[in-house]
Amino acid sequence: MASGGLDSTVVAALAKRDGYELFLLTVAYGQRHAVEVERARQVAKALHAANHLVLELDLRAIGGSALTTRAEVPKDRAARDRTDGIPVTYVPGRNLIFLSLAAAYAEVVGASVIYFGANILDYSGYPDCRPGFIRAFEAAVNEGTKAGAEGRMFQVKAPLLMSTKAEIIRQGMELGVPFELTHSCYDPVGELACGRCDSCLIRREGFAKAGVADPIAYAVP
Q1: Closest-CA residue to 117 (of 66, 32, 43)
Q2: How many domains does the chain have?
Q3: How far is residue 120's CA from residue 98's CA, in Å, rounded to a whole number?
Q4: 93 lies in which domain range?
């Protein structure tokens, strides 16, 4: 899964380091931060992916999230507020849908490992980023696919699941990840990250704690 964001880009670099050929999947789902799709294309090229599939699936028809509706994206929230409940930026069923598409893609290209950039330490408690969800999905996809029925089992890897943002950034630096190409913002101003949404704040705090300069520009310095 390649969103064009920081975590998914580091995960792709880890998969490449582990010796896997990269077949990247990006979903253009009608997200308000659609600039991430173009960034995913740039990342795929930079990492020399064997193939990069961009699927269009308009989740605006379902709605239920600030990322797929006109609902306001929270800004300038303190860290304690970002861990209080499930935020309005949660997209109903998003990772379940995305991983199902990734499994279908993997089955067609003959891949057995799906790398997934889920992380639970620095994020706001999204239920589809939790270990139990990942284990349950892996069991379901092996039960419900031709590949699984024939004994060609899928493995879902989330190597950053328990890492802090600073740890992820340091690991990315070691791998030569092109952070300048990544996009994390939920509510960009043109192509600039807003600098104030939860995702921007988590990213900025992560770079500060890692002692590394964030190479992207923000609308609010």
Answers
A1: 43
A2: 1
A3: 18
A4: 6-210
